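Allow me, if you will, to draw on your knowledge of protein folds for a short while. The matter concerns a single protein, recorded as an amino acid sequence and a row of backbone structure tokens. Could you please explain, in whatever detail you think fit, how the structure tokens follow from the sequence? I remain grateful for any guidance, and I place the record below:

…
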Amino acid sequence: MHRSMKHWMAGSLLAAAAAPTTALADASAHYVPGVEGIKAASVPPAGLYLRLYGVAYRSDDIRVDTPSGNGAIPGHTSADVDAFVPRIIWISDKKFLGADFGMDALWPYEHKHIEVGPMHTSKTGMGDLYLNPVILAWHGKQYDTVFCIGYWTDVGDYHREDPASTGQGYSNAMFTLGGTWYPDSDRRWALSILNRYETLASKIRHTDVTPGDNWVAEWGISYQISPSTNIGLVGYDSWQVERDDAPHGVPTPKDSVHAVGGQWSFHSHSLGMLFDVALYHEYDAQHHPKGNTGRVTLTIPF
């Protein structure tokens, strides 16, 4: 998921409220910010893992530029997304450039419901498949770092006329770079940042629009209150770096969104499982829905 289901809906909602031609104007990225949280750049040790994400997003405040500034679309609007995302992660016991080498893949199952005045539409189905053949993870006494090269495929259900399509209608590459720093010798405090950059996009199916690059930074500050429990402050910031490449005369405003929230994590040492709960509030948005994100994550080792 990225500029995210939410970014994509911003353009779709504006399209429905304005004119059919603008439906092509504001593509979204695949990755959904806020799904990792504290210690986001820390990759687990060698092994095979199943990570299950449950994500819910709710917004009734769509932000657009007006002559008087950035404001909400008048009248009733709502953008709701629910997603269940299974992800397989494999970390080998081999080294490359001094790093642990691994791979992962995920395929989201999504439900979207969008309303703008009298218009409303809902869709449920598979999103676009993500394949990540390169994970490189370095571990030190006081730090973890990660670098990834992945690819979003164009296999989800996409219909140009339907803003609730579960696929984005295009493929692109995603590069990941991040780090976690443990400032104390006991590693109870952790500061992390994880950057995702989407680029090299294909044209959106049945259109002349190529999505612009997008950058997401997820961050977290956490404290280990017991051997099994961490709590922390988390947030995300997302910026569309380049405008979409669209036919002349079609508006392609760049969007952004910023959020802050909290997370609780519990690690069952007997089962080896990790359970996370996080809530985010978006406090600023431009050409993007402004709402709240809830997320639960279960990581199961094999």
About this structure: Confidence is low (pLDDT under 50) at residues 1-26. The longest strand covers residues 47-66. Helices lie at 5-17.
